[in-house]
Amino acid sequence: xxxxxxxxxxxxxxxxxxxxxxxxxxxxxxxxxxxxxxxxxxxxxxxxxxxxxxxxxxxxxxxxxxxxxxxxxxxxxxxxxxxxxxxxxxxxxxxxxxxxxxxxxxxxxxxxxxxxxxxxxxxxxxxx
Length: 128
Hints:
The structure is a single chain. This protein is α/β, with parallel strands linked by helices. The protein has two helices and seven strands. It has a seven-stranded mixed beta sheet. The protein starts with a strand and ends in a 7-residue tail after the last strand.
């Protein structure tokens, strides 16, 4: 059975995401990157990954089809199996699995109507 092995990130809407990110960088030294959010890396784990904090513009459709102002991301050990389990449990799958340089992603709507992103990170390449 697939399982969640960590929190991948928190994504939320903001009326001015650039200003908000700058405020957090200025006042709490949140390490804002060029893409507008922060990644908190944990390189001491056997699975590569990091926790992400990202404000999005209010106009984003990334949280669609929900009207919620947030979305969260869970790191999973087996994306395909996790999505199958969610579907069997009554979750509504959204779209298709996407592969990227960061790993594989899939989405679903939970019983409360929240959009959830599941992330299976790319494996760590062997040391040379």
